[in-house]
Design brief:
Dihydrodipicolinate Reductase, domain 2; 2 domains; 15 strands; binds nicotinamide-adenine-dinucleotide; alpha/beta; about 35% helix; six-stranded parallel beta sheet; globular
Protein backbone atom coordinates (compact mmCIF):
# COMPACT_ATOMS: atom_id res chain seq x y z
CA UNK A 1 0.00 0.00 0.00
CA UNK A 2 1.41 3.38 -1.04
CA UNK A 3 1.41 6.04 1.67
CA UNK A 4 -0.57 9.16 0.71
CA UNK A 5 2.40 11.49 1.19
CA UNK A 6 4.55 9.74 -1.39
CA UNK A 7 5.26 11.67 -4.56
CA UNK A 8 3.53 9.70 -7.29
CA UNK A 9 5.54 9.22 -10.44
CA UNK A 10 4.51 7.70 -13.76
CA UNK A 11 7.13 6.33 -16.14
CA UNK A 12 6.28 6.95 -19.79
CA UNK A 13 8.05 4.52 -22.12
CA UNK A 14 9.25 1.11 -20.97
CA UNK A 15 12.05 0.27 -23.39
CA UNK A 16 15.74 0.26 -22.41
CA UNK A 17 15.81 3.05 -19.85
CA UNK A 18 12.20 3.33 -18.61
CA UNK A 19 12.26 0.20 -16.41
CA UNK A 20 15.56 1.37 -14.88
CA UNK A 21 13.97 4.66 -13.87
CA UNK A 22 10.93 2.75 -12.60
CA UNK A 23 13.03 0.56 -10.33
CA UNK A 24 14.75 3.65 -8.89
CA UNK A 25 11.29 5.10 -8.16
CA UNK A 26 10.31 1.85 -6.43
CA UNK A 27 13.44 1.98 -4.28
CA UNK A 28 12.92 5.59 -3.25
CA UNK A 29 11.26 5.94 0.13
CA UNK A 30 9.68 9.28 -0.83
CA UNK A 31 8.19 8.15 -4.14
CA UNK A 32 5.52 5.77 -5.41
CA UNK A 33 5.48 4.27 -8.89
CA UNK A 34 2.05 5.36 -10.14
CA UNK A 35 2.05 3.53 -13.47
CA UNK A 36 3.88 2.52 -16.60
CA UNK A 37 2.56 4.01 -19.84
CA UNK A 38 3.63 2.47 -23.15
CA UNK A 39 1.63 1.15 -26.11
CA UNK A 40 4.12 -1.66 -26.76
CA UNK A 41 2.77 -5.21 -26.06
CA UNK A 42 5.79 -6.02 -23.85
CA UNK A 43 5.15 -3.12 -21.49
CA UNK A 44 2.20 -4.77 -19.74
CA UNK A 45 4.42 -7.55 -18.40
CA UNK A 46 7.04 -5.02 -17.34
CA UNK A 47 4.39 -3.08 -15.37
CA UNK A 48 3.16 -6.28 -13.80
CA UNK A 49 6.69 -7.36 -12.80
CA UNK A 50 7.14 -3.94 -11.17
CA UNK A 51 3.80 -4.32 -9.37
CA UNK A 52 2.29 -1.17 -10.84
CA UNK A 53 -0.62 -0.08 -13.02
CA UNK A 54 -0.32 -0.22 -16.79
CA UNK A 55 -1.78 2.07 -19.45
CA UNK A 56 -1.30 2.11 -23.20
CA UNK A 57 -1.50 5.91 -23.34
CA UNK A 58 -1.47 9.05 -21.21
CA UNK A 59 -5.10 9.59 -22.19
CA UNK A 60 -6.03 6.24 -20.63
CA UNK A 61 -4.08 7.03 -17.47
CA UNK A 62 -5.89 10.35 -17.09
CA UNK A 63 -9.28 8.73 -17.78
CA UNK A 64 -8.55 6.10 -15.11
CA UNK A 65 -7.74 8.84 -12.57
CA UNK A 66 -10.92 10.75 -13.47
CA UNK A 67 -13.12 7.65 -13.24
CA UNK A 68 -11.68 6.62 -9.88
CA UNK A 69 -11.44 10.04 -8.28
CA UNK A 70 -7.68 9.78 -8.08
CA UNK A 71 -5.23 12.66 -8.24
CA UNK A 72 -3.06 12.70 -11.33
CA UNK A 73 0.53 11.65 -10.70
CA UNK A 74 2.71 14.48 -9.36
CA UNK A 75 5.45 13.85 -11.86
CA UNK A 76 6.37 11.77 -14.88
CA UNK A 77 9.65 10.52 -16.28
CA UNK A 78 9.58 10.64 -20.08
CA UNK A 79 11.54 7.73 -21.53
CA UNK A 80 10.14 7.61 -25.04
CA UNK A 81 12.12 7.96 -28.31
CA UNK A 82 13.82 11.34 -28.74
CA UNK A 83 11.49 12.70 -31.43
CA UNK A 84 8.40 12.02 -29.26
CA UNK A 85 9.55 13.86 -26.10
CA UNK A 86 7.81 17.15 -26.85
CA UNK A 87 4.31 15.85 -27.63
CA UNK A 88 4.38 13.42 -24.72
CA UNK A 89 5.70 16.09 -22.32
CA UNK A 90 3.19 18.70 -23.50
CA UNK A 91 0.30 16.31 -22.98
CA UNK A 92 1.45 15.59 -19.41
CA UNK A 93 2.07 19.26 -18.72
CA UNK A 94 -1.47 20.08 -19.86
CA UNK A 95 -2.62 18.11 -16.76
CA UNK A 96 -0.16 19.91 -14.48
CA UNK A 97 2.17 16.90 -14.19
CA UNK A 98 5.81 17.87 -13.55
CA UNK A 99 8.37 16.54 -16.00
CA UNK A 100 11.68 14.75 -15.88
CA UNK A 101 12.41 14.51 -19.61
CA UNK A 102 15.13 12.14 -20.71
CA UNK A 103 17.89 13.70 -22.78
CA UNK A 104 17.92 15.14 -25.35
CA UNK A 105 15.03 17.44 -24.40
CA UNK A 106 13.96 17.19 -28.04
CA UNK A 107 15.61 16.60 -31.37
CA UNK A 108 14.47 20.04 -32.62
CA UNK A 109 15.22 23.31 -30.77
CA UNK A 110 12.02 25.10 -31.92
CA UNK A 111 9.94 22.31 -30.40
CA UNK A 112 11.89 22.44 -27.15
CA UNK A 113 11.31 26.19 -26.90
CA UNK A 114 7.54 25.68 -27.30
CA UNK A 115 7.55 23.12 -24.49
CA UNK A 116 9.54 25.44 -22.25
CA UNK A 117 7.01 28.24 -22.73
CA UNK A 118 4.00 25.96 -22.38
CA UNK A 119 5.30 24.35 -19.18
CA UNK A 120 5.93 27.79 -17.70
CA UNK A 121 2.38 28.81 -18.55
CA UNK A 122 1.07 25.70 -16.77
CA UNK A 123 3.39 26.12 -13.73
CA UNK A 124 4.94 22.79 -14.58
CA UNK A 125 8.59 22.21 -13.68
CA UNK A 126 10.89 20.70 -16.28
CA UNK A 127 14.02 18.82 -15.26
CA UNK A 128 16.08 17.52 -18.20
CA UNK A 129 17.56 14.08 -17.62
CA UNK A 130 21.24 14.89 -18.05
CA UNK A 131 21.74 12.73 -14.97
CA UNK A 132 25.53 12.73 -15.24
CA UNK A 133 25.54 16.08 -13.50
CA UNK A 134 24.71 13.96 -10.44
CA UNK A 135 27.50 11.45 -11.08
CA UNK A 136 30.02 11.54 -8.20
CA UNK A 137 32.94 11.66 -10.66
CA UNK A 138 31.51 14.84 -12.17
CA UNK A 139 30.67 16.28 -8.76
CA UNK A 140 34.31 15.65 -7.72
CA UNK A 141 35.71 16.99 -11.01
CA UNK A 142 33.73 20.21 -10.58
CA UNK A 143 34.79 20.50 -6.93
CA UNK A 144 38.48 20.05 -7.79
CA UNK A 145 38.59 22.04 -11.02
CA UNK A 146 40.17 25.11 -9.40
CA UNK A 147 43.30 23.02 -8.67
CA UNK A 148 44.40 23.26 -12.31
CA UNK A 149 44.53 27.05 -12.05
CA UNK A 150 43.00 28.83 -15.01
CA UNK A 151 41.43 26.33 -17.41
CA UNK A 152 42.99 26.78 -20.84
CA UNK A 153 41.96 23.71 -22.83
CA UNK A 154 40.11 20.43 -22.59
CA UNK A 155 40.24 17.09 -24.34
CA UNK A 156 37.47 14.51 -24.24
CA UNK A 157 36.43 11.18 -25.67
CA UNK A 158 33.26 9.12 -25.77
CA UNK A 159 34.08 6.06 -27.81
CA UNK A 160 32.83 2.49 -27.79
CA UNK A 161 30.98 0.08 -30.06
CA UNK A 162 27.25 -0.52 -29.82
CA UNK A 163 26.00 -3.94 -31.00
CA UNK A 164 23.70 -4.31 -34.04
CA UNK A 165 20.91 -5.51 -31.74
CA UNK A 166 20.79 -2.07 -30.08
CA UNK A 167 19.67 -0.56 -33.39
CA UNK A 168 17.41 -3.42 -34.45
CA UNK A 169 15.32 -3.39 -31.27
CA UNK A 170 14.46 0.34 -31.63
CA UNK A 171 14.44 1.50 -35.26
CA UNK A 172 14.24 5.21 -34.25
CA UNK A 173 17.94 4.88 -33.29
CA UNK A 174 18.80 4.19 -36.96
CA UNK A 175 17.89 7.63 -38.28
CA UNK A 176 19.05 11.13 -37.31
CA UNK A 177 15.57 12.41 -38.25
CA UNK A 178 13.98 10.46 -35.39
CA UNK A 179 16.67 11.55 -32.95
CA UNK A 180 18.92 8.58 -33.70
CA UNK A 181 22.68 8.59 -34.31
CA UNK A 182 25.34 8.90 -31.67
CA UNK A 183 25.48 12.70 -31.70
CA UNK A 184 21.93 13.18 -30.43
CA UNK A 185 21.83 10.07 -28.26
CA UNK A 186 25.27 10.25 -26.64
CA UNK A 187 27.36 13.30 -27.52
CA UNK A 188 24.57 15.47 -26.13
CA UNK A 189 25.39 14.04 -22.66
CA UNK A 190 29.04 15.11 -22.91
CA UNK A 191 28.13 18.50 -24.36
CA UNK A 192 25.90 19.11 -21.36
CA UNK A 193 28.71 18.12 -18.99
CA UNK A 194 31.24 20.30 -20.79
CA UNK A 195 28.91 23.28 -20.50
CA UNK A 196 28.15 22.40 -16.87
CA UNK A 197 31.88 22.33 -16.07
CA UNK A 198 33.25 25.06 -18.34
CA UNK A 199 30.37 27.36 -19.31
CA UNK A 200 28.52 27.99 -22.56
CA UNK A 201 29.98 26.85 -25.87
CA UNK A 202 30.27 29.55 -28.50
CA UNK A 203 31.52 27.84 -31.65
CA UNK A 204 32.03 24.30 -32.96
CA UNK A 205 33.76 22.78 -35.94
CA UNK A 206 32.97 19.15 -36.66
CA UNK A 207 34.02 16.42 -39.08
CA UNK A 208 31.97 13.22 -39.27
CA UNK A 209 33.82 9.99 -38.59
CA UNK A 210 34.13 7.36 -41.32
CA UNK A 211 30.99 5.24 -41.50
CA UNK A 212 31.23 1.48 -41.08
CA UNK A 213 27.56 0.43 -40.77
CA UNK A 214 26.54 0.21 -44.42
CA UNK A 215 23.02 -0.93 -43.48
CA UNK A 216 22.29 2.32 -41.61
CA UNK A 217 22.98 5.19 -43.99
CA UNK A 218 20.90 7.72 -42.02
CA UNK A 219 22.51 7.46 -38.60
CA UNK A 220 25.82 9.17 -37.92
CA UNK A 221 28.53 7.13 -36.19
CA UNK A 222 30.25 10.05 -34.55
CA UNK A 223 32.36 13.12 -35.12
CA UNK A 224 35.62 14.86 -34.27
CA UNK A 225 35.03 18.31 -32.82
CA UNK A 226 36.95 21.43 -32.03
CA UNK A 227 35.13 23.56 -29.51
CA UNK A 228 35.45 27.14 -28.35
CA UNK A 229 33.71 28.25 -25.16
CA UNK A 230 32.49 31.82 -24.65
CA UNK A 231 35.13 32.35 -21.96
CA UNK A 232 37.96 31.49 -24.37
CA UNK A 233 38.59 27.89 -23.26
CA UNK A 234 39.11 25.65 -26.28
CA UNK A 235 39.02 21.91 -26.69
CA UNK A 236 38.72 18.83 -28.81
CA UNK A 237 36.34 15.92 -28.54
CA UNK A 238 36.01 12.56 -30.31
CA UNK A 239 32.66 10.79 -30.23
CA UNK A 240 32.06 7.38 -31.80
CA UNK A 241 29.67 4.48 -31.26
CA UNK A 242 31.54 2.21 -33.66
CA UNK A 243 35.13 1.72 -32.46
CA UNK A 244 36.63 -0.69 -29.96
CA UNK A 245 37.43 1.51 -27.00
CA UNK A 246 36.90 1.82 -23.24
CA UNK A 247 37.38 5.60 -23.35
CA UNK A 248 33.85 6.64 -22.55
CA UNK A 249 31.89 7.80 -19.54
CA UNK A 250 30.03 4.53 -18.94
CA UNK A 251 33.13 2.28 -19.00
CA UNK A 252 35.15 4.67 -16.89
CA UNK A 253 32.56 5.32 -14.17
CA UNK A 254 30.65 2.02 -14.15
CA UNK A 255 27.36 3.90 -13.93
CA UNK A 256 25.55 1.89 -16.61
CA UNK A 257 24.92 -1.80 -15.83
CA UNK A 258 24.88 -2.61 -19.58
CA UNK A 259 28.48 -1.45 -20.10
CA UNK A 260 31.18 -3.33 -18.14
CA UNK A 261 33.19 -1.16 -15.74
CA UNK A 262 36.77 -0.65 -16.97
CA UNK A 263 38.82 -0.51 -13.81
CA UNK A 264 41.51 2.17 -13.57
CA UNK A 265 40.63 3.85 -16.84
CA UNK A 266 42.45 7.15 -17.18
CA UNK A 267 41.51 10.36 -18.91
CA UNK A 268 38.30 10.20 -20.89
CA UNK A 269 38.36 13.88 -19.99
CA UNK A 270 41.54 15.91 -19.51
CA UNK A 271 41.45 19.49 -18.28
CA UNK A 272 44.61 21.50 -19.00
CA UNK A 273 45.19 24.50 -16.78
CA UNK A 274 47.79 27.13 -15.99
CA UNK A 275 48.84 25.19 -12.86
CA UNK A 276 48.01 21.58 -13.61
CA UNK A 277 46.06 18.95 -15.51
CA UNK A 278 43.06 17.09 -14.12
CA UNK A 279 42.29 13.65 -15.50
CA UNK A 280 38.79 12.15 -15.20
CA UNK A 281 37.60 9.59 -14.09
CA UNK A 282 40.87 8.57 -12.39
CA UNK A 283 40.94 11.94 -10.63
CA UNK A 284 44.68 12.44 -10.98
CA UNK A 285 46.03 15.94 -10.72
CA UNK A 286 49.34 16.45 -12.57
CA UNK A 287 51.08 19.50 -11.16
CA UNK A 288 54.22 21.08 -9.72
CA UNK A 289 53.24 21.97 -6.15
CA UNK A 290 56.79 23.02 -5.20
CA UNK A 291 57.23 25.35 -8.16
CA UNK A 292 58.69 28.68 -7.02
CA UNK A 293 59.63 30.40 -10.27
CA UNK A 294 59.23 30.21 -14.03
CA UNK A 295 61.79 27.43 -14.31
CA UNK A 296 60.24 25.15 -11.72
CA UNK A 297 56.85 25.80 -13.30
CA UNK A 298 58.02 24.59 -16.71
CA UNK A 299 59.14 21.46 -18.56
CA UNK A 300 62.48 21.74 -16.75
CA UNK A 301 60.87 20.48 -13.54
CA UNK A 302 59.27 17.10 -12.74
CA UNK A 303 55.50 16.90 -12.62
CA UNK A 304 53.85 15.19 -9.66
CA UNK A 305 50.89 12.86 -10.08
CA UNK A 306 48.56 13.38 -7.13
CA UNK A 307 45.55 11.17 -6.51
CA UNK A 308 42.55 13.30 -5.56
CA UNK A 309 39.61 11.83 -3.60
CA UNK A 310 41.85 8.86 -2.87
CA UNK A 311 39.91 7.01 -0.22
CA UNK A 312 36.52 7.48 -1.88
CA UNK A 313 37.43 6.63 -5.48
CA UNK A 314 36.76 2.93 -4.95
CA UNK A 315 33.16 3.55 -4.01
CA UNK A 316 32.39 6.39 -6.42
CA UNK A 317 31.52 4.13 -9.33
CA UNK A 318 28.88 2.21 -7.39
CA UNK A 319 26.88 5.28 -6.45
CA UNK A 320 23.79 5.80 -8.52
CA UNK A 321 23.32 9.15 -10.19
CA UNK A 322 19.77 8.12 -11.17
CA UNK A 323 18.86 7.93 -7.46
CA UNK A 324 20.33 11.37 -6.85
CA UNK A 325 18.53 12.77 -9.88
CA UNK A 326 15.26 11.28 -8.64
CA UNK A 327 15.76 12.74 -5.15
CA UNK A 328 16.31 16.08 -6.84
CA UNK A 329 13.18 15.68 -9.02
CA UNK A 330 11.15 15.02 -5.87
CA UNK A 331 12.58 18.19 -4.30
CA UNK A 332 11.72 20.11 -7.47
CA UNK A 333 8.14 18.78 -7.39
CA UNK A 334 7.84 19.73 -3.72
CA UNK A 335 9.11 23.23 -4.53
CA UNK A 336 12.24 22.77 -2.42
CA UNK A 337 14.66 23.15 -5.36
CA UNK A 338 14.84 24.56 -8.84
CA UNK A 339 15.87 22.10 -11.59
CA UNK A 340 19.63 21.57 -11.71
CA UNK A 341 19.28 20.96 -15.44
CA UNK A 342 16.66 23.35 -16.83
CA UNK A 343 14.89 23.36 -20.17
CA UNK A 344 17.32 26.13 -21.19
CA UNK A 345 20.24 23.83 -20.32
CA UNK A 346 18.63 21.03 -22.34
CA UNK A 347 17.98 23.39 -25.24
CA UNK A 348 21.49 24.75 -25.09
CA UNK A 349 22.97 21.24 -25.41
CA UNK A 350 20.63 20.63 -28.32
CA UNK A 351 21.71 23.85 -30.03
CA UNK A 352 25.32 22.68 -29.75
CA UNK A 353 24.40 19.42 -31.50
CA UNK A 354 22.63 21.55 -34.10
CA UNK A 355 25.87 23.49 -34.60
CA UNK A 356 27.74 20.18 -34.98
CA UNK A 357 25.30 19.06 -37.70
CA UNK A 358 25.47 22.41 -39.48
CA UNK A 359 29.25 22.37 -39.37
CA UNK A 360 29.28 18.88 -40.86
CA UNK A 361 26.98 20.03 -43.68
CA UNK A 362 28.77 23.31 -44.40
CA UNK A 363 32.38 22.27 -43.72
CA UNK A 364 32.97 25.41 -41.66
CA UNK A 365 32.80 26.27 -37.93
CA UNK A 366 29.35 27.24 -36.66
CA UNK A 367 28.32 29.61 -33.89
CA UNK A 368 25.88 28.06 -31.43
CA UNK A 369 22.51 29.80 -31.81
CA UNK A 370 21.30 31.88 -28.88
CA UNK A 371 18.16 30.43 -27.25
CA UNK A 372 16.46 33.79 -27.43
CA UNK A 373 16.61 33.66 -31.25
CA UNK A 374 14.78 30.33 -31.41
CA UNK A 375 11.18 30.69 -32.58
CA UNK A 376 8.90 28.29 -30.70
CA UNK A 377 6.97 25.80 -32.80
CA UNK A 378 3.73 25.46 -30.84
CA UNK A 379 2.14 23.14 -33.40
CA UNK A 380 4.72 20.54 -32.36
CA UNK A 381 3.08 20.33 -28.91
CA UNK A 382 0.16 18.48 -30.50
CA UNK A 383 -2.38 20.36 -28.35
CA UNK A 384 -5.65 22.00 -29.31
CA UNK A 385 -5.47 25.50 -30.74
CA UNK A 386 -7.08 27.18 -27.70
CA UNK A 387 -4.37 25.84 -25.35
CA UNK A 388 -1.68 26.90 -27.77
CA UNK A 389 -3.25 30.35 -28.18
CA UNK A 390 -3.03 30.91 -24.42
CA UNK A 391 0.67 30.05 -24.45
CA UNK A 392 1.41 32.40 -27.35
N1 LIG B 1 20.08 9.04 -19.43
C1 LIG B 1 20.55 8.00 -20.04
O1 LIG B 1 21.64 7.53 -19.75
C2 LIG B 1 19.75 7.35 -21.12
C3 LIG B 1 20.02 6.04 -21.49
C4 LIG B 1 19.23 5.46 -22.48
C5 LIG B 1 18.24 6.19 -23.10
N2 LIG B 1 18.04 7.48 -22.73
C6 LIG B 1 16.99 8.28 -23.37
O2 LIG B 1 15.74 7.73 -22.96
C7 LIG B 1 14.80 7.76 -24.04
C8 LIG B 1 14.32 6.35 -24.34
O3 LIG B 1 15.42 5.60 -24.80
P1 LIG B 1 15.36 4.01 -24.83
O4 LIG B 1 16.71 3.59 -25.25
O5 LIG B 1 14.79 3.49 -23.56
O6 LIG B 1 14.33 3.80 -26.03
P2 LIG B 1 13.56 2.46 -26.40
O7 LIG B 1 13.30 2.51 -27.85
O8 LIG B 1 14.27 1.29 -25.83
O9 LIG B 1 12.18 2.61 -25.60
C9 LIG B 1 11.23 3.59 -25.88
C10 LIG B 1 9.86 3.11 -25.42
O10 LIG B 1 8.93 4.18 -25.53
C11 LIG B 1 7.70 3.63 -25.99
N3 LIG B 1 6.90 4.71 -26.58
C12 LIG B 1 7.02 5.26 -27.82
N4 LIG B 1 6.12 6.25 -27.95
C13 LIG B 1 5.42 6.34 -26.79
C14 LIG B 1 4.37 7.16 -26.32
N5 LIG B 1 3.85 8.11 -27.09
N6 LIG B 1 3.89 6.96 -25.08
C15 LIG B 1 4.41 6.00 -24.29
N7 LIG B 1 5.41 5.17 -24.68
C16 LIG B 1 5.92 5.35 -25.92
C17 LIG B 1 8.10 2.55 -26.97
O11 LIG B 1 7.05 1.60 -27.15
C18 LIG B 1 9.32 1.95 -26.26
O12 LIG B 1 8.96 0.87 -25.42
C19 LIG B 1 15.54 8.40 -25.20
O13 LIG B 1 15.25 9.77 -25.20
C20 LIG B 1 16.99 8.20 -24.89
O14 LIG B 1 17.82 9.19 -25.44
C21 LIG B 1 18.76 8.06 -21.75
Amino acid sequence: MIAASLIQIAVIGAGLIGPRHASHVLNNSHAGLFAIVDPSPTAKDIASSLGTKYFTSIKHMIAYCDQNGLQYPDGAIICTPNHTHIKVSAELASYGIHLLVEKPLSSIPEEAKALKNFAKEKNVKVLVGHHRRFNPFIVEAKRNLHKVGEVIAIQGTWALRKPESYFKMSPWRQDNKTGGGVLLINLVHDIDLLQYLFGPIERIYAELLKKQRTNMPNADEGAALTIRFKNGITGTFICSDNVTSPFNFESGTGENPTVPFQDQLEGFYRVFGSQGTLSVPDMHLFHQPDAVDENTNSWLHPIEKEQLVDDRLETLHSQMPFDLQLDHFIDVIKGRAEPLCTSDDGMSALLCIDAVMKSVESGIPQYVEDIKNIKPNYEALGLDSETVRLTK
